[in-house]
Amino acid sequence: MAKKSKLNFDTEVPKIVIGNKEAHGDSYYRLKDNVIYYSDNGKNKVFQIESSISGEGKSTVVINLAVALARSNKKVCVVDLDFRRPKIHRAFNIPNFEGIAEYMLGDCSKEALIKKTEYGVDVINRGKAAQNTSIIFTSDKFKALINELKEEYDMILLDCPPVLLVSDYIHISKLSDTVLFVVSCGVTHRAQLVEAIDLLKRNEVNI
């Protein structure tokens, strides 16, 4: 396996820059337009956001893309599936309880699971930690939840752990329409990128 980058921004809180007059905010609007085009009038709704390693800005892309979509009158739900380093709740300033883990155990309702934010984006946080995530991602209850979200939202963005860190992408990809792959200039090594893309393609993931 390729070496991981020494740079690590796992402790940083992803920043919402849409509407803050920052230059790179426009990039998210361009990305938003491409995602809407790819959605093909609602045929593709579930976007799995991946990266090779930690610290590439994947969660930042997720939250800003979600806000840009919401500002374009799209009903959006962001689901934090990174059980090892959840960040979405911190970005939207919501408490990290009554999340996916509690829902799967039957400890919270679907109504409590989905949190509203001031940005017009709905969020499903991770909740408490879970050891064996493959059990969650392959369960009928999780599949049913994703299918229900597809009925209720225009876009579902899944913030997933890096490909080279864990193999969760294999199970999640069975429920997503496509993978949006994030690469960070100056952080991701070519060998890491090649390895991650190869792993995704072996599992017939649509990148």
Write the layout of secondary structure elements.
Blueprint: H1 25-39, E1 46-51, H2 58-71, E2 76-80, H3 88-91, H4 100-105, H5 110-113, E3 114-116, E4 121-124, H6 133-137, H7 140-152, E5 155-159, H8 168-172, E6 178-182, H9 190-202
Helix pairs in contact: 1-2
Name the helix and strand elements from N-terminus to C-terminus, one letter apiece. HEHEHHHEEHHEHEH
Give me the side-by-side strand order of the main sheet.
Answer: 3-4-2-5-1-6
In the predicted model, the low-confidence regions spanning at least 5 consecutive residues are 1-10
In percent terms, what proportion of residues is strand? Answer: 5-15%
**Residue share in helices?**
25-40%
Describe the global form: globular
Give the C-alpha Rg: 16 Å
Number of strands: 6
**Can you give the mean pLDDT?**
89
- Could you describe the largest sheet, including whether it forms a barrel? 6 strands, mixed
Describe the oligomeric state of these chains in a short phrase.
single chain
